[in-house]
Amino acid sequence: MGQSLSIRQLEAWYGTNQTLKGINMEIAANQVTAIIGPSGCGKSTFVRCINRMHETLPGSKVKGEIILNGESIYGQDPVSLRKTVGMVFQKPNPFPSMTIFENVVAGVKLNGMRNRQNLQTIAEKSLRMAALWDEVKDRLNYSGMSLSGGQQQRLCIARALAVEPSVLLMDEPASALDPIATMRIEELVGQLKSEYTIVIVTHNMQQAARIADTTAFFLNGELVEHGPTSEIFTNPRDKRTEDYITGRFG
Amino acid sequence: MSTDNNRLYESMGDKVLRYVTLLMAILVVILMIWIGWQMFSSSQESIQHFGWAFITSRVWDPVHHIFGALPFIYGTIVTSVVALIIAAPIGISVAIFLNEMAPSTIRKVVAFLVELLAAIPSVVYGLWGIFVLAPVLRQSVEPWLTKWFGFIPWFKGAPVGFDMFGGGIILAIMILPTITSISREVMAAVPTAHREAALALGATKWEMIRLSVLSYSKSGILGSIMLGLGRALGETMAVTMVIGNMPKISSSLFSSAYSMAAVIANEFTEATYSLYLSSCIEIGLILFGITLLLNIFARLLVWSVARGPKGGHLV
Hints:
- Chain B: GO terms for molecular function: phosphate transmembrane transporter activity.
- Chain B: The chain crosses the membrane at residues 16-37, 72-98, 110-137, 157-179, 275-298.
- Chain B: Its main location: membrane.
- Chain B: It is a multi-pass membrane protein.
- The complex is a heterodimer.
- Chain A is α/β, with parallel strands linked by helices.
- Chain A has a domain at 5-95 and 167-245: P-loop containing nucleotide triphosphate hydrolases (Rossmann fold).
- Chain A is 37% helix and 26% strand.
- Chain A has 10 helices and 10 strands.
- Chain A has helices spanning 43-50, 78-84, 100-110, 116-129, 133-136, 149-162, 179-192, 205-211, 229-234, 239-245; strands at residues 5-14, 17-27, 32-36, 60-68, 71-72, 85-88, 167-171, 197-201, 214-219, 222-228.
- In chain A, strand 1 (5-14) and strand 2 form a beta hairpin.
- In chain A, helix 4 (116-129) packs across helix 6.
- Chain A is globular.
- The model of chain A has no long low-confidence stretch (mean pLDDT 91).
- The relative contact order of chain B is 0.15.
- In chain B, strand 1 and strand 2 form a beta hairpin.
- By secondary structure, chain B is mainly alpha-helical.
- Chain B folds into 2 domains: 2-42; 44-307, MetI-like fold (Orthogonal Bundle), CATH 1.10.3720.10.
- Classes of the chains: A alpha/beta, B mainly alpha.
- The A-B interface holds A 51, 53, 56, 58, 79-83, 86-87, 89, 91, 93-99, 102, 106-107, 110-111, 139, 141-146, 156, 159-160, 163 and B 104, 191, 193-194, 196-204, 207, 211-212, 215-216, 218, 308-315.
């Protein structure tokens, strides 16, 4: 099941450049939350703070609090946090030296699971959830790199799902894909929200409108507005949101 | 078809560039074949005189006109293997540390120092081997190894200091920069996306290095080891100065020996009759052949590692 997140006074720096300026936001469980905004507004940094990937970059700094299921994530070991908060990146990044099967179970194996039978069950379940099973079931021992871009991205989603996270972060997961592959990813997001809390970064406003329950608009490191998607797109409260969604800038 | 079209529009300058670079490329090939052929023809006398026995015979006796290359082949291979066993784990560890753990100031300083090792002339390594390494080996390291690991044939016997063990250690130091700097470069080329893929799955630092960095760069690391091995096989001066220069075959690393490059360097000027000279050149030919075979083998190995699973392509 998904878990809820509450973000309090979150600030992040990259070197001397402050990329997030006091974000306060509630993310409901089992919903799709879209983060939109122009390039450089801090939306990627924001999701990368949720699984503490931001800190892995040299020169980065974070302040504030993120509460996941009642517990501060900054009090946890980032390694175990990332097993609860999975992530899918902008460019599909399967491990190039591994087969499709090995890619899916890579995270499960890190957790110490070795039983071949169990691994197979998990691999099939994850690939089915990622809507990839039917396409790859006969060639699980082929390289992950042998798949098309869209399939690779669904493979990465399956890999993230296999460790059974409760939150799934997606950082522009469809921006490197063609329209058909994008559509499949969007359908998938809709199906996954019954099991996971999904936070998806997108620069594509139509995508946000299609798949998100709530949408948050970021600008220059600040959260301008966060509300039900229909409201954000039809009746925004803030002038800047309106300017952005009507295409006046960005 | 398209290449033909392109050539039609090729400018004069590009044409010149193409032919000049082609000529240089051909030159390298010709040089290689020429060296091989020259050695082959100059060693005809000894090849005809001894046949295959040259490679299998252990006797090297210029006084009685009997020549066998086995002790030199043995000495070269054993010292090179010892060097690899010592240098490969150290070199790869240093590369991992510099690339993945060290703060950037330490990385720059240490990487520079390691590369500086490659700039030291081999005769200086030899001198250091004679005056520092050999005494230390003879007085402390080798007696200690004999005491505790003497049941292994490699560590048996009375330590002399000037032996295959010393030669291997000198070689290890000399090939360390090759292994370290090339490994480091291939590790630095691993895309951030692969590292983040592992970290986002909840990998620890070591698991990330294993899953993303090492598996992505293993063919390059293997290549760096093979380059190091190539250098070790051919290294002459430093080995000559510490190996003891005795043409014998012993299972103990603490025994003096001789290497192919060393015997050529030492005895070439003393080769007073043609069979002697021819034998020296044949040793050169064998060294050439071994290096060639090794490189082919290395290529195959790197290729098979880089291939990865079906339908994939690494790097």
